[in-house]
Amino acid sequence: MKQFNIPHRYKPLGWFIFGVSTVLGILYLINTDLLPRWEVNFPAVLSNELFGETTFFTLAVTDLTTLLTAIGIIIGGIMVGFSQEKVDDEYLNQIRLKGLQYAFLTHCILLIFSLLFVREMALLMVLMLNIFVMVILFVIITQVLLYRIQKSMGHVE
Amino acid sequence: MLNKVKEKRTAAAFTQEEMAQKIGVSRQTIHAIESGKYVPSTILALKLALFLKCNVEDLFSLTQEDLLPLI
Question: In Å, how far is B70's CA from the nearest CA of chain A?
Fold first, then answer.
């Protein structure tokens, strides 16, 4: 079965993008002023200002630092999670799918929990963070599974 | 699913690494198949049988539990 995979050579670049973006994302969460703001008018398909009107196909003031950080986490995560190992095969593909499955289920559980027990603006914040949870969990779970397999192999037979 | 890949491989005096390289898979995969953690695809099972010069049925067989729906 043909599966979506990225060549192994992109893995280090993926780790770099994912690592830098995640650190920037955490810094932003700690204090929004820690990152320099880079505001530009950016095209938006749909825009809705607080207490304002909904507009389609417009330009909206956007902070490029946070935008690039968010996109970096997603693209870096995909590059790490889906890049092949030096020797790759169907078993490692299955491990990646397992990682994706666990990440998706955890994401759904967190989503249900958030909808049930988080309220008002906090819910908006948690839902926004939950967008990245799946990608981050996918990377972590897949790498842990691959590491555990490597470790469990022990000596050469 | 029972498998005799390890028995056949050691009888043929190959290491996991050698067999993995010849078949074009990772050593992790051979290890996972031998330890019963992973059931290979038909194509990989056929490659293993070809490499070990035997039939697929010599390498893999169903357990009583697997056979239950057929009985």
Answer: 27
By a Cβ cutoff of 8 Å, what residues of chain A touch chain B? 85, 87-92, 94, 149-150, 152-153, 156-157
CATH number of residue B6's parent domain: 1.10.260.40
Per-residue pLDDT tens over the stretch A104-139? 999 999 999 999 999 988 998 898 888 899 999 999
Q: What are phi and psi of A55, to 5 degrees?
A: -125, 145
Token pair 């095969």 is at which residue? A89
Rounded to an integer, the average pLDDT of A10-36 is 93
Please write the tens of the pLDDT for every residue from A71-108: 999 999 999 999 998 888 999 999 999 999 999 999 99
A88 and B38 in contact by Cβ < 8 A? no
Cα-to-chain-centroid distance, residue A99? 14
Residue pointed to by tokens 């074009």: B24
Domain boundaries, position B50: 2-70
Length of chain A counted residue by residue: 157
Position A51 in a domain: no
Residue A43 contacts residue A59 (beta carbons within 8 Å): yes
